[in-house]
Design a protein that fits this description.
CATH topology: Glutaredoxin
Mean pLDDT: 95
Radius of gyration: 14 Å
Number of strands: 9
Number of helices: 5
Strand order of the largest sheet: 2-1-5-4-3-8-9
Number of domains: 1
Low-confidence stretches: none
CATH class: Alpha Beta
Structural class: alpha+beta
Order of helices and strands: EEEHHEHEHEEEEH
Strand content: 25-35%
CATH architecture: 3-Layer(aba) Sandwich
CATH superfamily: Glutaredoxin
Amino acid sequence: MEAKGFALTDQNGKIHKLSDYKGKWVVLYFYPKDDTPGCTKEACNFRDSFEKLQGMNVQILGVSKDTVASHKKFAEKYNLNFPILSDESAKVIKMYDAWGEKKFMGKTFEGTLRTTYLISPQGDIVKVYKKVNPLTHSSEIISDLMKLK
């Protein structure tokens, strides 16, 4: 299935389009909120695997509903070395089915689901990861990429 195109702004105000990364693998990961425990672990896990993934021709793109300013603070606080994109309207989040019902502290609400898409250099979705473990997610992707290449 072909990945849907988008254009979103990163933590530095730069616009990123999915089409910018044709010819590369793309890890497009959706996360609920900047600077919360699980999201921080996941972002730092990708940060720490950045060189290995880059060596495999992979671009990492994080997406949440947080503002560009929030992303900038989050990226600077944790030295994130990849773009995190702001989707305040949740348009792209919903387009990728990463929006849905969540439960927290006994309450049910709608929000961003921790979901990742592995997109091939040709622009096709080759794997969808739902309910990922933020601590081991990048190694799971690296392992899958080694099987796919």
